[in-house]
Amino acid sequence: MSLIFAKVGEEVAVESITGGRAAIKRLQEMGIYPGTKLRVIANSNGPLIIGLGNTRIALGKGIASKIVVKDQILHM
Amino acid sequence: MTDTIQPATRTLRAALIGNPNSGKSTIFNALTGGNAHVGNWPGVTVEKKQGEFKYNDFEVEVTDLPGIYSLTPYSIDERIARDFIVKEKPDMVVCVADASNLTRNMYLLVLLRELGANTILDLNMIDMVEGKLDINIEEIKKLLGIPVIKTIGTKGIGINELKEAIINAVSAKPSALQIHYGVDIEQAIHEIELQLQKIPSLYNKRFIALSLLQEDPQIEEEIKNEGFGAAVEAALVKAAHLEKKLGFDLETGIIEKRYGFIESIVKQSTKKLLSLEDKLTISDKIDKVITNRFLGIPFFALFMLATFQLTFKIGGFFSDYIDQFFSWLGEIVGGIQLPHMLSSFIVDGLIGGIGNVLVFLPNILILFLILSFLEDVGYMARAAFVMDRVMHAIGLPGRSFVSMILGFGCNVPAIMSTRTISEEKDRLLTILINPFMSCTARLPIYTIFAGIFFSKNQGLVVFSLYALGVIVAILSAKLFRVAIPSLKGKISPLVMELPPYRMPMLKGVFIHAWERSGEFLKKAGTIIFVGVVVVWVLSSFPQSYEYASEGTFIGRLGHIIAPLLKPAGFDFWQVGVALIFGIIAKEVVVGTFGTLFGGEENISLALQKLFTPLSAYSFMVMSLLYIPCIASIGAIYRETGSVKWALFSVAYSLILGYTVAVLFYQIGSLVL
Fold first, then answer.
1. How many CB pairs under 8 A join A and B?
2. Which of B256, B332, B593, B651 has the greatest CB tally within 10 Å of its CB?
3. At residue B34, does pLDDT exceed 80?
4. Architecture in CATH for domain A3-71
């Protein structure tokens, strides 16, 4: 599913990033690439805030919609 | 005379590099003991900052490079950093990494090592991971083959070790890092390297080959200029061919391989003791309120309004004293027996002109103090976040808004701060609208006029001018986006780090505010001084006329312009003169009034005779919009690299300022 559908508090893993080359590159350089685990900190019909470890990154809705993620299955 | 034997000192050149918010500025300050600003929102270090430190017999010059994520010339900051490392060849590069986000921070390190830079890894903010993550630095040293130091920049811990590591690294010549990118890509790299065998480039050949495969435009151009255009063409063909064969974007593939390499290092050298990301931090909780969908913008408006109220309430208090001081000084000097010309020069020219500008120092200092505080506390990035949706509606990214707010301080650094905006069109637009943001130099004009004509609603009237500036900026952006072909295009998406909120070190805030206010003082001593002297000379000659009367040169000059100003409601020659000299710096508008009319009290009386509240407001509108000051025009020229855009900015604002002031006055006259 697209990152924008992830719920607040959810931990997701990036599967793929679609969209423009420049945008993909920018995300990768910020540490968001397939395999990265993200936590959704805020998501309310505007830009999102995601957590990448201790780092918080604001993502516009447009670019967030291009990040395909998978729910993390929480098994211990 | 006996010679004391000096120990042979050697000067080394070190560069400091790191991601935004990695604490790089703090390390810079700790190393150099200097007063470089400790900032908080991404990209605050846009200017090249240098400092020195001595250690043993060595003198080390440290250059603070911009905070960046990567070395590909994606933004100007990245280009500056890469060019510095490759072309200026510092003896060593210290890569400051946030220990709590190792993987991402080490990406830059890998790029530096691929470039072949003699690098030291500084794991900073190590206290953030204490008890959560065990980092085995010996293992990292072994795996990367470079020195690794742990520091806590804010507490000065590990700084001596870092200094020592810098000195020790002087003779190190580590060979460039080679990551294995897989058989197919390696084959392509090898083939391109063969074609480049004779190239005299500063980059290593493998790095060039990799960059060409990634279609790095800057490297492509440089290699073409070296006369190896054929290799560039061949690399492009290879890249296309490889992409087809491998089924993925080559650049993405290369970046992922790098992360693979980093992950393996991180895995081997760290042990997780506690999950780093399992709780909402205090910052997250604050953000729930501050960046809330409904509350975010009201909060922002509230902060801005409070900023201006404080600026006037507290600043005004101190300004009164400075004003009294200059009046007193004027009387003293006036009482001394001096040749008439000299006395007039000091009292009318210097005290009247510069004194009137200096009166506003407290306002300016306080405004900068608050802006620095908001920046250092981490709020500026949130303001960009909150405004992103609104900004998108007007065709600009949220990031532009930070530059706009900085424009309230001074348009010059604000224009420079656009360097972190990667999309060239967005950047250009942000630059072009910045002069409409009311900088502190306009503040003296507003304060004087609002004080005289709107004494009951002073704060509100001034706020309305700030708001008008923002509205004009926004509408202009929209207009440019639609009307100027080279500015059409998509808005770059919001991808921005939100630094954790932190209580700024008050010392840092004060230093920052003082540095910026210092610019104002310097301006008072130089450009404003010159402006005031010119005004005084023009007002004094020909001597047969009374000082600053209509017959003097300045009076004649003013008379040429005054008729043009009639539709705007202030067709007085003194106003014409003030506006002309205001181009030098907007403070000179007030300085000119001071020189023409004499001290504050006389200004007040004179202005009351010349203006009505309506024409006073119209004049403030004109002063806000009519032209960027010389320093801003210079900044626009430097940052856009184009005379055309600088001229466009001047022409556009002249026409706009005049039109809006006239419309305001004419419509106002009909309604009132």
1. 125
2. B593
3. no
4. Roll (2.30)
